[in-house]
Amino acid sequence: MTATPAELPARAVLQATGLTCTIGGAAIVSDVDLGVQDGELLGVIGPNGAGKTSLLNLLSGLLPATSGAVQLDGQNISGWSPHRRARAGLGRTFQTSSVFGELSVAENVSIAAQAFLGGNLRLWQPATRIRGRSERAGAALELVGLAGRAGIAAGSLSHGDKRKLELAILLAGEPKVMMLDEPMAGVSAEDVPELTELIGRVRRERGATVIMVEHHMDVILQLADRLAVMHHGSLLLCDTPQVVMADATVQEAYLGGAL
Ligand SMILES: Nc1ncnc2c1ncn2[C@@H]1O[C@H](COP(=O)(O)OP(=O)(O)OP(=O)(O)O)[C@@H](O)[C@H]1O
């Protein structure tokens, strides 16, 4: 009997299989099987040192895998450089802010849009390419609410606004998968709700597929469709937030530690 669409497994845009990284004899990520479905927000949680950032680094190619595979849209991208993975649609932000402070807000986003459209940053460019670049950059800045501050130096933005700019930079590259590494890190408590709302809006308006590492449980519970729990480099559990939060092993893993 043919399966109905509802019974068919959802399509994983990004799939890790047996992903392992051993450094100096220690497995910092061990045999992780994890798929991110089209349009979902997958939260990655776990105590400090559990391997969350290392998992993102393995997916984005910044850390070489000892074994295992990564597939993007069904294509095996294992062994590809970080740059090639980014060009193929794996976008990434980092725990620490990574904007060019001397450049304007608009220039920061323009560079990302240019990289997506291809070509280099030479002065002479065909008018269509310049238009495409500035339209993409403008739309991304509009979405994150920074269009009115496009001309100011990125370095003069508040930490929360720098995080918004990083999102705009990511969006301008139109990634298939957005990987956010602790987007709330360093953001003041009063800016957290606005940034949380923004990530939710980006998902709704762009249909974005997101993997997000975050320690703020209130944020992750508000945004995530599923939660992957890392512990000592292994994937402890991946399920709905309700199932994960009720799981005795997860609660034990966190006993005495910050979620
Ligand atoms: N390049 C590396 N060389 C050696 N050890 C590393 C390297 N990168 C990470 N580790 C180790 O791997 C473990 C996992 O680190 P990772 O940063 O991935 O954890 P995390 O879950 O993101 O932690 P946090 O929540 O504190 O950011 C840690 O013990 C860390 O010291």
TrEMBL record:
Pfam family example for this protein?
ABC_tran
Listed A to Z, the keywords are: ATP-binding, Nucleotide-binding, Transport
Task: Respond yes or no to whether keyword Lyase is given for this record.
Answer: no
Note the Gene3D superfamilies from the entry.
P-loop containing nucleotide triphosphate hydrolases
Q: Which ranges carry the ABC transporter domain?
A: 14-257
Which cellular component appears as one GO term in the record?
plasma membrane
Which Gene Ontology terms cover its molecular function?
Answer: ATP binding; ATP hydrolysis activity
User: Can you tell which superkingdom this protein's organism belongs to?
Assistant: Bacteria
UniProt xrefs under PANTHER family: ABC TRANSPORTER ATP-BINDING PROTEIN, CONSERVED COMPONENT OF ABC TRANSPORTER FOR NATURAL AMINO ACIDS-RELATED
Name-wise, this protein is Branched-chain amino acid transport system ATP-binding protein
What is the native source organism of this protein?
Flexivirga oryzae
Its ancestry begins with:
Bacteria, Bacillati, Actinomycetota, Actinomycetes, Micrococcales
